[in-house]
Write a structure and sequence with these properties.
mainly alpha, 37 residues, rod-shaped
């Protein structure tokens, strides 16, 4: 039970960092596009 719980937390943390990195990447692209326009 404890093992699966820690694994679940690890997966959650990985997906959270992935989503935050993706949103930062998208925001940078939006800034670049707005600078070009």
């Amino acid at each position: 039970m404890g093992l699966s719980n820690s694994l679940h937390k690890r997966v959650l943390r990985k997906s959270l960092t992935f989503f935050s990195n993706t949103s930062i990447y998208i925001n940078i692209h939006i800034l670049k596009i707005s600078n070009i326009l």
